[in-house]
Amino acid sequence: MRLSVIIPVKQYNTAKTRLDVSDEQRAELCHLMLHETLLTLNRSADIHEIVVVTGEARAKRLSEAMGATTLYDDDSGVNQAVHTADTYLSKRQATMSLVIPLDMPLMEPSDISFLLKFFTPPTCILVVPSIRYDGTNALLRCPPDVMGTSYDDNSYRNHMAMARRAVTNNGLVHVPRMMHDVDTLMDLKYVLQRARPDLKQRINDILR
Q1: Cα distance between residue 26 and residue 32, in whole Å
Q2: Which pLDDT does position 153 carry in this prediction?
Q3: What pTM value is reported for the model?
Q4: Quick one: which of 38, 192, 204, 207 has the fewest CB in 10 Å?
Q5: What span, in angstroms and rounded, lies between the C-alpha atoms of 55 and 13?
Q6: Residue 166 contacts residue 141 (beta carbons within 8 Å)
Q7: Interior/surface letters 112-146, b for 16+ CB within 10 angstroms, e for the rest
């Protein structure tokens, strides 16, 4: 089955507001993390198409330069952004989608392959929670329209409950590197301790 990845990207000036850094630094960190995520996805043999939903001009230019499809979003929320991508994928008769955030800089292509090992056809929903179990860092849906999304408070619990109602084949999957996104300075410190040297240097350059 062909896997399509959906990445909702907010305007940089409204994203990652829990990061206690300047607005300019937040924007640069978002841009860097999106680049890292796209780089990882482009190295994965499991992915057929990357769809970035955004109204952020810099994110659009970067995504298109790195081979992704971009769809416009007016920053009306993650659920609406995913719905926009779902509509696009439905017209393309896509078979399976994976919704992820832009900020998982430790993710590797092997993490996607590992997640797919738990996929059970023909219909299946898999959820990778955030490290604090209060969010959803990856949502695999087959077919893409088998279930909507609920990226609000406790989206991990929301999605697990929705998955159980929607399909028999559903599951929680722990993929350690995918569970670490960057919402706080503590998260960023964790990434800096484990990032490859060039990425660590680029993050430190932004934070100076």
Answers
A1: 10
A2: 83
A3: 0.97
A4: 204
A5: 11
A6: no
A7: bebbbeebeeeebbbbbbbbeeebbbbbbbbbbeb
